[in-house]
Write the structure tokens for this entry.
Amino acid sequence: ETGVTQSPTHLIKTRGQQVTLRCSSQSGHNTVSWYQQALGQGPQFIFQYYREEENGRGNFPPRFSGLQFPNYSSELNVNALELDDSALYLCASSFAGGSYNEQFFGPGTRLTVL
Amino acid sequence: KNEVEQSPQNLTAQEGEFITINCSYSVGISALHWLQQHPGGGIVSLFMLSSGKKKHGRLIATINIQEKHSSLHITASHPRDSAVYICAGSNTGNQFYFGTGTSLTVIP
């Protein structure tokens, strides 16, 4: 059983550019959640995908968008990057439909916007 | 005000000390989670609680539903326990609300 993986591990972009981050869910999981963690802060919920549909969204602007694919892997896209978008981006997968709601986290992608 | 509040923000302890980290939440949750994050960024789930108390090795987590409060205890702390400990609540939609974390340093 493979765990949650994310790519790339590190990324440097400049203001105004666009970025795509990728996440592969743990085997058997059908839900992916994305979080933004600024330095010294706890993770903030961006959105969640369940069976390829957005299933909840945090307080993030529309330039943060996502996709979930039939194999339950996921992408986070951020357009028109701003300096404040510099953060660790975490994805977590889980199985919705069971009696518990434990999430398994990937190692994160550290994005730096210059 | 954050839905999940933790204290203290930073904690330094001598090896062997008993450590307590506290968490209070103001939202309705179906489960309370304690997570550990090491400097590389990866997050590991330590406990998931909906009531009572759980123990795993030197770690103990308790929750008081009426008071909306949870504690994480570490007995006989060790330098390898140094990490950020994060409290999070999850709702029935499996959406998580995180505290800002407690940075623990255990000195040999």
Notes: The mean pLDDT of chain A is 90. The interface with chain B takes residues 31, 33, 35, 37, 40-45, 48, 55-56, 88, 90, 92, 94, 96, 100-108, 110 of chain A (CB under 8 Å). Chain A is about 0% helix and 50% strand. The radius of gyration of chain A is 13 Å.
